[in-house]
Amino acid sequence: MRIRYAIVALAAAALPLGARAEEPAKVSYYKDVRPIFQQNCNGCHQPAKPLGGYVMTTHADLLKPGERGKAGVVAGKPAMSHLVEQIKVHANGKAEMPKNRDPLNVIQIKLITDWITQGATDDTPASAKAVVVDATNPPKYSAPPVVTALTFNGDGSRLAVTGYHEILLYDTAELQLKTRLIGISERVQSIAYSPDGKKLAAVGGAPGRFGEVQVWNPEAEKLLVSAPVTFDTLYGVSWSPDNKALAFGCSDNTVRAVDATNGKQILQMGTHSDWVLGTVFSQDGLHLVSVGRDMSMKLTEVGTQRFVDNITSITPGALKGGLMAVDRRPMKEKKMQKIPADTPGAKPNVYDEVIIAGSDGKPRLYKMHREVKREIGDDSNKVREYEAMPGRISAAAFNAEGTKFAAVSSLDGKGEVRVYDANTGTKVVCEKVTGPTYAVAWHPAGKMIASAGFDGTVWLHDPATGKLLHSFVVLPKK
Ligand code: HEC
Predict the structure, then answer these.
(1) Which of 69, 279, 281, 332 could form an S-S bond across to 247 if both were Cys, CB 3.0 to 4.6 Å?
(2) Rounded-to-integer distance, Cα 439 and Cα 346, Å
(3) Which of 63, 99, 102, 212 is the best mutation target for the ligand 1 pocket, counting ligand atoms within 8 Å of the beta carbon and taking the most?
(4) What CA–CA distance (Å, rounded) separates 369 from 232?
(5) For ligand 1, is residue 84 a contact (CB within 6 Å)?
(6) What is the pLDDT of residue 6?
(7) Are 348 and 336 in contact (CB under 8 A)?
(8) Is the separation of the CB atoms in 363 and 386 below 8 Å?
(9) Rounded distance between C-alpha atoms, residue 339 and residue 369, angstroms
């Protein structure tokens, strides 16, 4: 697409004054126009968030009028299309839309206008024509979805589970589906309740097309923010302790954070060399930890967006395979960390520990901040390792006290769910797990852990004994 833009721009620049422009190249809705809307407009103009009464996620909706009663797109007539008027850049350099953002660039505006002039046809290939999915047409399931993430709310009354195009909220007493939060991302990869319990964040996207950060008010079933980020699925969302920021990993190897009230980017860190799959903030919110397929765990200072340190060893072979799971250990009392005497200018940080795990199946506990000067190749932040699980670990979660953590793994079509004592390393293997497991969460009162994965079954286990308390299959009917 870049190349195509460049050619359009060059052709325009090369025209002698007064010469008639050649017929512009045929513009494709699917390849040229739709991606512009996905990146710049759909966050505010989708079924769950139709600002101005205008939806832009399907071709048919684009032709309809919004609140002002003017059709957004009138085929063949850009001058009568309200959408064109809204993206027009005024003399002051501003445009009505995208609201409160920089206007679209000249090339994007020309592509949209030319597409409308040429008849605004829908050239979406039949194979890519997705069934329309929104609150009135909820996703239909012929089989249970692969569950990529689940989490309890603050009082444990709800369990949020990822589905296709949606997040499903179950009542934990009745084990009944209560609420469906349906968005534009086909895949929701990761979900997290805000520390104050008021909001539910999700990241996901459509592979190879767009990434998205969603923030919901789950009580009101209202989508508060839908922000596009990069051109691919996002992973590993986490909240800052003050409920203000959301961090996540991207498949362009960056770690990013956005303002949770409006989706505006506030942090970007690019020293990972492969996809970033997990994030967590420090207790005080001043630092951000990220893990990824490059087998490393990295520390970033939030205020300056500065990469601080590799927390894991950077010696080749110290870790085998990528890291997917990360969770901060809740600490009973706030401790300050020791600082090496010979570290000039170092600030004392709040002492934090994190559990990480991934492809080699071995959970490891690390200190977040270095307490001794780095010796090349050392692994001095490591506190301890735990017995390996079969296969790869996709998720790990601490209990509220920070005394135990649960981890889930998958290998050759099978899965395992375990609870480890963080101090002694003693393990409990949970019973009757039937398939590969990708997600785990700890009930806030500690009496129950939930896990799920490939076969769409949610297991609820007693973490003390490993006994299966309940299980149910994620398969919304209707
Ligand atoms: C941050 C949110 C936001 C984004 C992003 C956004 N819009 Fe809007 N849009 C609004 C709101 C709010 C309104 C309602 C009118 C107003 O407040 O100006 C609106 C109204 C409109 C309307 C008029 C609907 C009607 O009939 O009243 C059109 C057309 C429109 N937007 C097109 C676009 C296009 C095209 C883009 C992307 C280039 C875009 N918008 C991006 C928030 C947004």
Answers:
(1) 279
(2) 37
(3) 99
(4) 31
(5) no
(6) 40
(7) yes
(8) yes
(9) 9
Whole-number pLDDT of residue 7? 41
- pLDDT at residue 372, as a whole number: 79
pLDDT score, position 371 = 81
Which residue reads 């953002």 in tokens? 101
What is the torsion angle, in degrees rounded to the nearest 10, for the CA atoms of residue 420, residue 359, residue 356 and residue 451? -50
Whether residue 50 is preceded by a cis peptide bond, meaning omega within 30 degrees of 0, is: no
Contact present, 383 and 367 (Cβ < 8 Å) = yes
Give yes or no for residue 54 CB within 6 A of ligand 1: yes
161 within 8 A of 150, measured Cβ to Cβ: yes
Q: What is the pLDDT of residue 13?
A: 42
Which of 477, 474, 414 lies closest to 450, judged by CA? 474
AA identity, residue 102: D
Closest ligand 1 atom number to CA of residue 40:
37
Give the separation between CA 73 and CA 189, rounded to whole angstroms: 33
Kindly report, residue by residue over 177-212, the tens digit of the pLDDT: 999 999 999 999 999 999 999 999 999 998 888 899
CA 222/CA 208 separation, integer angstroms? 27
Predicted local distance difference test score (pLDDT) of residue 126: 80
C-alpha dihedral sign at 380, 383, 384, 390:
negative
Note whether 445 and 460 are within 8 A (CB): no
Q: How far is the CA of 45 from the centre of ligand 1 (A)?
A: 7
Query: What is the predicted pLDDT for the residue at 11?
Result: 41
- At 133-144, the pLDDT tens digits run 788 888 889 899
What pLDDT score was predicted for residue 278? 98
Give 105 Cα–ligand 1 centroid separation in angstroms.
17
Determine the straight-line distance between the first and last CA of the chain, rounded to whole angstroms: 40
Instruction: Kindly give the parts of the chain with pLDDT less than 50.
Output: 1-19
Tell whether ligand 1 has an atom less than 6 A from the beta carbon of residue 328. no
pLDDT of residue 344: 62
Q: Which amino acid is at 275?
A: W
Tell me what pLDDT residue 19 has. Answer: 44
- pLDDT, residue 130, reads 64
Distance 66 CA to ligand 1 centre (A): 9
What's the confidence (pLDDT) of residue 348?
A: 76
Our CA angle for 19, 112, 27, nearest 5°, is 75
Cα 418 from chain centroid (whole Å): 25
Check if 199 has its Cβ closer than 6 Å to any atom of ligand 1.
no
Comparing CA positions, the residue from 77, 44, 73, 51 lying closest to residue 60 is 73
